[in-house]
Amino acid sequence: MTSSHMSKKQDLPPTAWAVLGLLSFPGERTGYELKKWADSSLRFFYWSPAISQIYAELRRLEELGYASSARSGPEEARAKRRYAITAAGREALSGWAADTTEAGPPVLKHGLLLRVWLGHLAEPARLRAMVGEHLERTRQELAAVRDAAQEAAGVPEWAFPALALRWSERQHLAELELGEALLADLAELSPQGGTAGRQAGGDAPTPG
């Protein structure tokens, strides 16, 4: 691999590695198929890139020689471009996956908790309703995770994705437990707890 390719390899964003990772499993796939798979796998524990991001990364990976593509033949009513990982791409991905560099801490951006943090500006009943809505969405996501895990179960090539989905199932169960505890915490506040702070002064509740 040339020094220029090595430099490009080091500059690849996580999205590129995720797309290349999707290609590392057996078979060739279209960009649309990669997006569907990301939506039913990656999004449960990382995130799912937009279809435009997927195609942008596929072009980048082809330029690097990490992926190849071919258009379908006349036997298909609608021409499709299918992508596959190359030997160079598999070697680069293996190196990245085995890299001992610290992957960094998990990044949590919990929109509901941001609103709870601003609960002194909201009505208590509305806060409790938002938590209830969050719990319902989490239950729906948990069901989707379990469906994906069931599909991956028993397929040797998907043994490690199945482990990630199993972790995601536990994470969603923990999120349900945290949500129920948050409802209990909100119930302990006084009926005016969500509005009393509107006129309150004083320092922020932080140490130091």
UniProtKB/TrEMBL annotation:
UniProt cross-references to Gene3D superfamilies, sorted A to Z: Winged helix-like DNA-binding domain superfamily/Winged helix DNA-binding domain
Any idea where the Transcription regulator PadR C-terminal domain is? 109-186
InterPro entries linked: Tscrpt_reg_PadR_C (IPR018309), Tscrpt_reg_PadR_N (IPR005149), WH-like_DNA-bd_sf (IPR036388), WH_DNA-bd_sf (IPR036390)
Source superkingdom:
Bacteria
Transcription regulator PadR N-terminal domain residues = 19-93
Q: Which residues form a coiled coil?
A: none
- Mind telling me which PANTHER family this protein's record contains? TRANSCRIPTIONAL REGULATOR YQJI (PTHR43252), TRANSCRIPTIONAL REGULATORY PROTEIN (PTHR43252:SF4)
This protein is called what?
Answer: PadR family transcriptional regulator
State the species of origin.
Streptomyces yangpuensis
